[in-house]
């Protein structure tokens, strides 16, 4: 019987927590972190491999490690009147993902039921496929429907410029194509709760990684329907309340703060210079009390663009607080110039 030491457990936990991002240099990273030799780390790697927590491939100098799936599960659900997200969660998903800390289960409960319900109510499809993969470190759930496609539906319903504009509106939050049945908060908050979150639909892929200020937009080949992917560490300290508290304030706990990713308003090599571009960026921000414009990835803006947001809109909505983050010196100068014209 092997002797278990606290330090050994710490080392193996560190390996499991970091191996997904460091499949080829995990030995070096662990050795540096704990101040031990790579030979000592390799003993722990071999033990994890023997326990089937890790898979290894390649020769000694080019060895690659990855986590062994503890489970892989999938099921297809027909979209019909009796299909309900809470029943699917309670009867299938919660049992499949197994024992997890309460805060982790609460995040999965919120995220899964929100995304599954969106597929039921909005996809106009005939079926939903759910896939689950769990390792010693994390759990990943994919929900795919065969419907119209979320970005295309938002574009059509709200008469937006194109699918990319639909993505910008989703990133702000409070967006729904059926206000009588949905608040429009589900996708926004779900995307902020998980380690990684992505939506693939039509020709657009949207993703958000926890702790990152920016949302990523990639052009892809046309994809039928909508696929949502969510991944979360099995022992994160994150909670649903912590995420909600980041975007709420006041006694009513209303969703009153949004971060607007300005770079999503740029199309290919376009510069943000016109009032029309600014007006598209400002769509629906009057729904919030605090609006933070994130200029990461934006090198410069035009005078008319800045004036429309930071003078015209600001004067028309004096009760809305406007703020900026990640702005370059050029962007800051143009914004200050607009404010001084007030």
Q: What can you see in these coordinates?
A:
With 342 residues, the chain is α+β, with helices and mostly antiparallel strands. It is built from twelve helices and twelve strands. Strands 3-4-5-7-6 form a five-stranded antiparallel beta sheet. Strands 10-11-12 form a three-stranded parallel beta sheet. Strands 1-2 form a two-stranded antiparallel ribbon. Helix 10 (275-282) links the parallel strand 10 (257-261) and strand 11 (290-294). Helix 5 (102-122) packs antiparallel against helix 8 (186-193). The relative contact order is 0.08. The mean pLDDT is 85.
Q: What attributes does this structure have?
A:
single chain; 342 residues; five-stranded antiparallel β-sheet; three-stranded parallel β-sheet; 12 helices
Blueprint (SSEs and pairs):
Blueprint: H1 6-18, H2 26-34, H3 38-50, E1 54-57, E2 64-67, E3 71-78, H4 85-97, H5 102-122, E4 127-134, E5 138-145, H6 150-158, H7 163-172, H8 186-193, E6 196-209, E7 216-233, H9 240-246, E8 248-249, E9 254-255, E10 257-261, H10 275-282, E11 290-294, H11 303-316, E12 321-325, H12 329-340
Parallel strand pairs: 10-11, 11-12
Antiparallel strand pairs: 1-2, 3-4, 4-5, 5-7, 6-7, 8-9
């Amino acid at each position: 019987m092997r002797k278990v030491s606290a330090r050994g457990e710490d080392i193996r936990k560190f390996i499991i927590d970091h191996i997904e991002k460091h499949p080829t240099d995990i030995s070096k990273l662990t050795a540096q972190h704990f101040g031990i030799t790579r030979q000592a780390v390799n003993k722990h790697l071999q033990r994890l491999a023997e326990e089937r927590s890790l898979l290894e491939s390649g020769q000694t100098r080019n060895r690659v490690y990855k986590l062994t799936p503890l489970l892989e599960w999938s099921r297809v659900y027909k979209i019909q009147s009796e299909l309900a997200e809470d029943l699917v969660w309670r009867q299938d998903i919660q049992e499949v993902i197994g024992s997890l800390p309460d805060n982790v289960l609460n995040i999965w409960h919120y995220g899964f039921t929100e995304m599954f319900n969106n597929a039921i109510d909005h996809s106009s499809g005939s079926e939903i496929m759910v896939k689950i993969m769990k390792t010693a470190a994390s759990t990943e759930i994919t929900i795919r429907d065969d419907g119209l496609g979320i970005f295309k539906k938002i574009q059509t319903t709200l008469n937006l410029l194109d699918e990319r504009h639909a993505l910008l509106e989703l990133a702000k939050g409070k967006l729904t194509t059926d206000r009588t049945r949905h608040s429009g908060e589900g996708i926004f908050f779900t995307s902020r709760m998980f380690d990684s979150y992505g939506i693939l639909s039509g020709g657009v892929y949207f993703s958000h990684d926890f702790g990152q200020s920016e949302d990523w937009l990639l052009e892809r080949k046309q994809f039928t329907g909508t696929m949502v992917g969510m991944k979360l560490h099995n022992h994160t300290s994150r909670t649903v309340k912590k995420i909600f508290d980041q975007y709420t304030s006041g006694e009513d706990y209303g969703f009153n703060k949004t971060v607007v990713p300005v770079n999503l308003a740029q199309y290919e090599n376009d510069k943000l210079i016109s009032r029309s571009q600014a007006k598209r960026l400002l769509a629906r921000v009057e729904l919030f009390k605090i609006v933070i414009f994130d200029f990461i990835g934006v090198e410069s803006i035009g005078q008319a663009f800045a004036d429309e947001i930071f003078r015209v809109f600001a004067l028309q909505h004096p009760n809305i607080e406007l703020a900026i983050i990640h702005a370059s010196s050029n962007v800051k100068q143009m914004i200050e110039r607009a404010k001084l014209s007030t």
